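step=predict obj=Thiol-disulfide oxidoreductase resA n=371
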Amino acid sequence: MKNIFLIIFSLISLSGLAQMTFSERVEYSELATPKDKSLFFVDFWATWCVPCVHVSSYLNTIQEQFREDLYIVSLTQERSDVVRSFLERHQTKLAVSIDYEGQNFKQHNVRALPYGILFNANGEILWKGNPANITPRMIRSFASKNKQTTPIYDFLKYSSYENEEEVTTTLDKDFEIREANIPANSFPVIERINDITSVKGSLPQIVAYLLKVSEKQVTLKDNFTQYQLLIQKNFNHSWKEKEIAHTILKDLGYTLKTEVRAGKILEIHLPESTSAYWNKDQIDWGTKNPKFLVDESQFSADNISVNDFLYKLSDILETPINIKNTQNITAELFDWQLHYQFSDLMLSNLSDLGIEAKETSGNFTRYFIEK
């Protein structure tokens, strides 16, 4: 076994009401003063969470406004290399830390992102919810009612521990699905771990990924369980993934029913040649990385097929995609980057890749997961 030494970042409650342990510090705060604080705000986020990017900008403003009383730390469960790569492109002046095992997410029942918790110096929870909803007026009110302060590094403790096990993901069969203790998110977390593709999310999110459709096209009532699907790299082809969808649903006691609907769609014509697609050398996030990074206006992808690329576009736009010439779908992997916020720019970006697209009305399939 390989010994891994991590820095533990502990948020200690002096009253015992709140205690958090962070695995690694990525960034110090550039805005908060070093003086004792009366308020501490933990911002739960992820690099793939589009609303989190907007919230981070807002929290930067909040932190700058309350340098003396408030200390904000942004907390994610992702790997250090993923977080640091993201912060190179989306700079923040907030403190940033990592919770590798997700203990704080579980302890505070964080089921959706972004999410935030405000503590006073005694560790009492004063407020929790979407960070976008906490206002300067509220912060000012909490500060006026919570005068007691504590040194930042009495409240935020650092110590070392030794982890004797190196965490690995192994798979003895072509695919496997298991329950996962993770918060519910707007998008599934799709990562590549060596030769295994990992998809974490709700059952509709996982089925949507396998069928290459928007999550909005998949319906399941009264099941909020989160899962992790693992797929061998050499099993990652669209027709096999559809088989996987039906197999895992059957194993979980579900069936998949379909219904044709009419509505707004994005019609796609793929080029016969892939020469305009980006090759795999344009983006390199290493062997253990997310397949997609999404921000408020564009998304990037490292080594994915055109099928996965269009799936992600459909999911972000919440719009069904109809590929008119499926014979031009290839399993070859490429790198991608696309602006999606503005329709004209998105269509222009697709055209540059040789992909002709138009927003129109048409038929699409809705999927219903039922017992």
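step=describe
The chain has nine helices and 21 strands.
step=end
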